[in-house]
Amino acid sequence: xxxxxxxxxxxxxxxxxxxxxxxxxxxQFKKIQERFLQQFENIFPDKLAPRTVIIIPSLxxxxxxxxxxxxxxxxxxxxxxxxxxxxxxxxHVIYVTSENIDPVIIDYYLHLLPGITGYHAQSRLHxxxxxxSSHKPLIEKILERPRLIQRxxxxxxxxxxxxxxxxxxxxxxxxxxxxxxxxxxxxxxxxAELGNKTNSRKIFKECGLLVPPGFENLHTQEEVxxxxxxxxxNDATLEKAxxxxxxxxxxxxxxxxxxxxxPANDALKEWIAxxxxxxxxxxxxxxxxxxxxxxxxxxxxIVEAFLSGKTKESPSVQCRITPAGxxxxxxxxxxxxxxxxxxxxxxxxxxxxxxxxxxxxEMGKKVAExxxxxxxxxxxxxxxxxxxxxxxxxxxxxxINLRKGGTTHPFIxxxxxxxxxxxxxxxxxxxxxxxxxxxxxxxxNLKSDAYKGLSPHDLxxxxxxxxxxxxxxxxxGVMFHLIGALSEYGKLGVVCxxxxxxxxxxxxxKIVTVLEKEx
Length: 519
Hints:
- It is a single chain.
- By secondary structure, the chain is of the alpha+beta class.
- The chain contains 17 helices and 20 strands.
- Helix 1 (23-34) packs across helix 8 (171-180).
- It is globular.
């Protein structure tokens, strides 16, 4: 297994590269991306084609918000699902992280590979590390290390076509693409604003979809106060509203405003202005109101009514736009949200409820077609709030995530291990055996202080002794991720695959029971 520890000559500064985040760099990136169509059409369909995939699992978002997420650096491990690409016998994978990944974690993933020996896979896997545990996004660390960029280049065999796969694509990922002269299977950062909260609402309206009552394109605290006042004036029964930064992540760019004891007269706006610091509660831990508005003023954002109902779900639709222009709905999920605000992503059921999975897919495809017309490429998700009233579901799209997300890695694992496909007309997932239907429950947030101190070796030992693993014969079982976060943060990710939703949940319950016993 390549580690990037061989001695290389210092990388020479290439004066042909344009300045970072410049117009010239953006133009060169577009030229690189134009070559990707040929690679997609010629290389992707051929399982024996020599290729290299460079995985950059960087959470390239607001550093202060990311620092509030427990064990955030270990979230880079979520894309280890992409190691399943090594089942293709001539494919190389380069995986770059902030810190070294324990070899026992890598061995765990390679053991899942169907039809490939561990030795063969290891010879085509190159693990590179920045040796940097700071909260800066991974991509920033990579760009600060020209020798590391040279190591990435040196790991690509000369006869290989290569592309980058990133968690998100910002101007910094674009800079790396230009320095490597390698395309990205993802959205051009010039189009990234299409996925912010303001433009999401605009696109939903263009598609004729129902959006929550609210206001977009806000930039100041005064505009937020006006929006909160107007929402309450328009609906006297409204108890809560959500204030969202345009570029929040996993709910941590959101805040909930409570209308407790608000006057129902002309004094409403004055009351909101006076009580904004006590009635507005940011979702992110320890994010003060002044800092929240400092970031809101910089990013802009929206205010929406907090939708309530006796029966309420938070589904999502995952879509993909290929370089050939094909628009695909690849999965649906029912998300589990939690925390005091009910805004934090904890996990998801796949697929979404049979009551509405097909309808969600149709709405997701409308959004995907709109984004395709605007030039978007790659995977993205549309999140919804769904409320059942009088035996009918109303679906409100609330945001577009132009990146991979919390539902990406579980689905990729399932797809690689079963070689199956999601049937959008039925809202079901069938394995390659045709008649077998599979479901899963996944979580990034199985967490307990009692788990702290468990090393990756301990977890693997516990899993093997207690039969907590994925069985390729039955195509059911358990897969772990975020394993590196366990010892320090007591936090773990899981994907539980079953032949029914109940069996998937039973696997999860077994994990919790076993860990409680072992700890």
